[in-house]
Amino acid sequence: MTGPVRLGPRSLAALLLVSAVGVAAVGWPFIAPPSSRIASHAQDAPWLFAGLLVLLVAVLAAAIAESGLGPKAVAMLGVLAATGAALRPVGAGTAGIEPMFFLMVLSGRVLGPGFGFTLGSLTMFASALLTGGVGPWLPFQMLAMGWFTMGAGLLPGPERLRGRGELALLAVYGFVAAFAYGTVVDLAGWPLLSGTASNIAFDPDAGPAANLARFLAYSLATAMGWNLGRALCTVVLTLALGPALLRALRRATRRAAFETAVTFDRPGA
């Protein structure tokens, strides 16, 4: 039976590097000193975007080199990214109804964390091009979706757990991770409110604890409904379409010969 694409040393190193960059990029309001005068991500986003693309290529290249992925596997990555991008505008983001999230959960489960991270990030990039959603927020959405898909690949029992137990695990993960995705995206946009007089905006003169309280209030007031809708949509689609899609993805990975070494027999051997 073909399992998820395993992480090798280079893939793991690339993933850790891009994740460290991402954590610093979204978490700076809680670690930067008040005297730093950092007020927004607007000027840093283009540089982060360029650096993220380089790191994504490094993750994919390492996964291909270490796992022996062939052109069929890379083509599968493209097909899934295009499918996820096409699913994103289906609900137009209304009340958080975004069908692409359930596809990322199931794909990450089958393909593994390294391939899943690359798939999630590329899917978000492709969907932004499709919907015209390119802006300073895009690199943070790509990071959040990469982590979202990677997390599904890190769930236990990828080669043993099947049936209702696996579906329940994926549904619970999708529900919780949908809120985590929303939190990361909120963190990217929240500092942009620093110029307002709101008591939930980022205050560069306040300490980490005070800003954390402000952010929690901001998230509850502005994003809770969207996050809940996204989480419920992911759970419903995972339970309804999960069995058929998991079988299709696993069948496709077998045909793509994931992690299958190519050997040649000598004539007369």
Q: Structural class of the secondary structure composition?
A: mainly alpha
* Quaternary structure state of the chains depicted: single chain
Mean pLDDT: 78
Number of strands: 0
Biggest sheet record: none
How far the N terminus sits from the C terminus, by CA atoms, comes to 28 Å
Q: What does the overall shape look like?
A: globular
Number of helices: 9
- Our estimate of the beta-strand percent is under 5%
Q: Helix proportion of residues, in percent?
A: 55-70%
Uncertain segments are 260-265
Q: What letter string, H or E per element, gives the SSE order?
A: HHHHHHHHH
**Spatial extent as radius of gyration:** 20 Å
Notes on the protein architecture:
The chain is mainly α and 269 residues long. 67% of the residues lie in helices and 0% in strands. The chain has helices at 9-27, 45-67, 71-87, 100-111, 113-131, 138-153, 164-189, 208-222, 224-255. Helix 3 packs antiparallel against helix 4. 39% of the residues are buried.
Describe the SSE topology.
Blueprint: H1 9-27, H2 45-67, H3 71-87, H4 100-111, H5 113-131, H6 138-153, H7 164-189, H8 208-222, H9 224-255
Helix pairs in contact: 1-2, 2-5, 2-6, 3-4, 3-5, 4-5, 4-6, 4-7, 4-9, 5-6, 6-7, 7-9
Question: What are the key terms here?
Answer:
269 residues, mainly alpha, globular
In short:
The protein contains nine helices and no strands. With about 270 residues, the protein is mainly α.
